[in-house]
Amino acid sequence: MAGIGFELKKLYKERGVVRGLKAFLYSFVVTVGPMMLCVFLITFMQYLLEQMGVGYINRQVFVAVIQYAFIFSLLIAGAASMYLSRVFADLMYMNRYDEILKGLDFTLIVALIVGTIEGILFLRTTSLDFITALLAYSLFMILIIVWTYGIVITAVKNYKKIFYIYLSGVFVGLVTTIIMVLFRITNANYYLFAVIMAFMIIATRLIFYMRTVFNSEPKVSRTIVENLDIYGKLVFVGFFMNAAIYVHNMVYWFSDHSTIIAKNFHLAPFYDVPMFYAFLTVIPAMVFFIIFFETNFYDRYKDYYAQIIHGGDLVQIETSKEYMIRTLYEEYAGVMQIQLFFTIVSLLIGRILLPRIGVTSGSVDIFSILTLGSYVYAAVYVCVMVQLYFDDVNGAAVVSGIFFITVLLATYLVNKLGFVFAGVGFFIGALTSWIVGFMRLNYYMNNLDYYTYCNQSMSGIKRTGFFTKLAKLMIVMKEEEIVEYDDNGESPYYIVDADDIDDEFDEYDQYDDYDGSNYENEPVIDMDSDSVRG
Questions:
Q1: Residues 474, 392 share a domain
Q2: How many CB atoms lie within 10 A of CB 330?
């Protein structure tokens, strides 16, 4: 998020209401703008289908396909988001921009393989016709591409360009929809195709634009694989933080109050609709988190570690640390105070407007509970992001794991108590995880000296394990050209290009400052001028 912070600082240096509003809009566009455009398009299509008299079952199939595609594509891409953000940040710091696209493409291939297996296995259990199933699978795959490429948006820094890419897709989707309405087309599959076309344009333009920004050779990304030994827990952080948002919906999908569409699409409209509106109420927290933490707090954060790295005296270091921690809590409180205002306003407006758009009184009550739960979720989100600022990966993994498990268990238990308690499980799970997370954050801040000075590797050697070995194996397999056998015809060995393999090992050396000496623990590779034999 540093790229966003730099742009926001430029805006805040120039005082004035207009500049402040521009900074807010800037943060909004970067954080939730693309998602809101897509939500607007799909909501508009649902409204048109209802107004045109499309049958209830067909409309529910349309909603189910889109809802499942969105949720499960976000779960797959979300699992990689935290991890990739950290690895890409390191690569950007080292000016290794060519590695970003290679890592992104490798992740995308893995995500599409997982998504294909998941999608085919699920669609086989439904009663969708072949055309609808094909459209559902296509939308699922395209969304995985869009969310995955969206991870590196902040690295590009051309936020207007990215926003216009999303806007172009939504515009095409809207125009296509309006044309179908004019021709009185009532087949829901055509509208589903319009959604696919909109996201296809977004995905295609993102792919081509990213390739103009990040130039790289088509190589296997060893960095992305081997860093799983170091930052692998971030995969769980990303997955659990996303899964906890939807797992309580899934509990009600399989409750006695659910609706089953096309044999295996489980929905709970009485719960899904208020959750959709409730989650929209936390947008201010996400926007102001970027504004507050990437401007005021980041300066204090950078100053503290600059004092340590560049040899500041003890008094300067302690003063910077106290100033940074105080700013951290002030900005945290500021974000939650602003969000509290929007939450209260949303509660009041929701009870007035939601019944007028067809939401039942029971669902309005659920909306109130889920809005409070979403407020607490915003506090959990900020807490986890701050933990990752300080590289507290273990703390973030624990908090996100507790968030997922407590929401799941609490929702399952309160569901047994009856419809009147719907939504309470999400609130309990969010509150529990926030208490644990805030306690962990306080503990970390109170022991910041230990985690700064004593919790680092003394050898300077990166942690290695299964994924590092797998990454090396991938490089060797990539460079393999032919297979020969020894004189006895038994043990196979490979002939590879010596210069290429040497370049790979130089590029990814475990010792960042390796000078050719003290390489005692690495295997010796005998080379001749033409090949490496092993």
A1: no
A2: 13
